[in-house]
Design a protein that fits this description.
Largest sheet: none
Oligomer: single chain
Structural class: mainly alpha
Shape: globular
Helix content: 55-70%
């Protein structure tokens, strides 16, 4: 959406609402709406996926058996971390699951890292063309994006439940666990299992979204300090921004690790029976 020029500087509320809006196929703004497409979320998700695949491909092609360089050492460290967690959690064929976990970790980490870009970078870029569209850079701060990834994990859970236990075994588990196989308990068992699958999916998406959305909001509040026409406001902007950016590094990495770990846990649970 392109807004017409205004003659006054935006208020704090207008500034925050503008930066939290999406470049979407609808003019209506909402936190979650599956009837529209957030173009910025899709664009940056795909771009970070391409960047992640490119980095992993370059690392694989440049890998040597001798003393590794810094980049190779970093990739090997991440690979060993993810592979060890995969071995500890998933007891079965990990031919697809281990690379999946590595892809999830790198992809989510790169998307989270976009939060370190200056909050007004793209707003300034669009103003060069006399445009002021809503545009958000961090895909994981969009609930549509995180719930989309969580739904993909749900589909993997269902797939491996059927693959490992067979369709009959999975249906038997749905209706006969955890309370027992008596017909009077089938409805209660199915309801509890259904709630479990929904809760896992929603909590997985909400956890990542909540942390990244809050981090993005804090950066916007800190940016407002720099807009004050006082030396102490600008000073607080620099100090607070630096401190929060350093602390946010931990959040960015930790949330990528947690999302990857929960993906492994949920897929690993599909390999086990009640």
């Amino acid at each position: 959406m392109i807004t017409e020029g205004v003659n006054h500087a935006p208020t704090s509320t207008e500034y925050i609402l503008h930066h939290l809006g999406h470049l979407s196929t609808s003019h209506q703004e909402s936190i979650i709406d599956f009837t529209i497409l957030n173009i910025d979320t899709v664009f940056w998700s795909v771009m970070m996926g391409i960047v992640g695949l490119t980095l992993m491909t370059v690392a694989a092609r440049r890998a040597t058996s001798g003393v590794p360089g810094r980049f190779q050492a970093l990739v090997e460290m991440i690979f060993e971390l993810v592979n060890d967690q995969s071995k500890n959690i998933v007891h079965g064929d990990r031919t697809f699951i281990a690379p999946l976990a590595l892809t999830v970790f790198v992809w989510v980490l790169l998307m989270n890292s976009l939060d370190f870009l200056p909050v007004d970078l793209f707003a300034a870029f669009f103003r060069l063309f006399d445009m002021e569209p809503h545009f958000r850079v961090v895909p994981t701060a969009d609930l549509n994006g995180t719930l989309g990834m969580a739904t993909a994990v749900l589909l993997l859970m269902l797939y491996y439940n059927v693959k490992i236990k067979g369709l009959g075994g999975f249906l038997h588990e749905l209706f006969c666990a955890p309370f027992g196989s008596h017909p009077a308990l089938w409805l209660a068992n199915f309801g509890l299992n259904l709630i479990e699958f929904v809760a896992k999916t929603v909590s997985l998406g909400m956890r990542l979204f909540g942390n990244m959305y809050a981090g993005e909001l804090v950066f916007l509040l800190i940016a407002l300090l720099g807009s004050t026409a006082t030396w102490w406001g600008f000073g607080l902007h620099i100090v607070a921004g630096s401190i929060w950016a350093i602390f946010h590094i931990l959040i960015v990495v930790l949330q990528a690790f947690i999302f990857m770990m929960l993906t492994l846990v949920y897929v690993g649970q599909a390999h086990q029976g009640h």
